[in-house]
Amino acid sequence: MYDYTGKTVLVTGASMGLGEGFAHGFAEAGADLILTARSVDLLEGVAEVCRSKGSGKVTVVPGDVSVEADVARVVETGITAHGRIDALINNAGVSDMRGVAPEQFDMETWNWIMSVDLNGAFMYLRDVGRHMLESGGGSIVNICSIMGHGANELNIIAYTAAKGALRNVTLQLGCEWADRGVRVNSVSPGFIITEMVRPALEGMGMDKWIASRTPMRRIGELHEIVDPVMFLASDGASYITGHDLNVDGGTNASNGTYQIPPIHQEWNADTAPRIGRGYEGVQPRPDWYEVMKAGIPGIHYTPES
Ligand code: NAD
Description:
This protein is an alpha/beta fold. Helices cover 39% and strands 11% of the residues.
């Protein structure tokens, strides 16, 4: 869909997960790449695949996004090797799946998540943004999250705070740099299976619960995040800046999608077409209307009562 021939794209957190997917996507579109994360071995593996997929030149520069000197070194090494950076995919991130309630949350974990998801992202924005402003323009896509858009019941207060802040930084820098050739946008993904979320989604079966409350009734696939990011980074999005794009199967458009068919859909059921489908994970009994007149079984009364 895209042609990035002759463009250099810097991807942070490129060693696995979404970052690896972005690297592959840009490689297939002919981009030259600067790949960074902490593990040089993993990055070299990704780089090799990218070369085979179509990247002319791939430079691996290991570094920690939360360390200011590392960020400066990665950016400098990348510019020296490639001459310029046309696009930055600000993707590196961490989360915390312990399920610790906000009133118990420890500052060590809070500071770690902030240092990667917000401080690290900002340092890349600042250093690459400065280069782009001085060298005639560029495009930046931050990877935020639907968790930065509103409340959730997942006990990940630091992640929610960091991603919400990064979204606001996107809007702010989108405006501040708008008339100087540097576009800043973000993508807020819903859930995609990567190592970050695999234990909860696949290991604990949370993927089905998430699918049940997503209007599209499924979690996302890697290419469904890669393509929108490549669009926002491309010249096809030349009049778009300061925009956060939800890529979430409709989650943010919804007030909460029902898992149990709403009772009012039974009114006039014989004459009016049914709107929407119930979640397939919940199989209503043929007599469910009668059953649910007394409330939701298991919540308002025990099914046996
Ligand atoms: P992942 O754990 O598979 O990959 C994270 C990447 O960031 C890895 O390459 C890792 O090495 C790198 N990283 C982590 N800490 C770093 C540090 N201190 N310095 C340098 N690199 C570091 O996770 P993912 O799911 O691919 O996440 C990528 C981004 O997408 C993150 O910002 C995440 O918050 C966001 N996101 C993911 C999902 C999802 O469902 N997977 C949903 C919404 C947003």
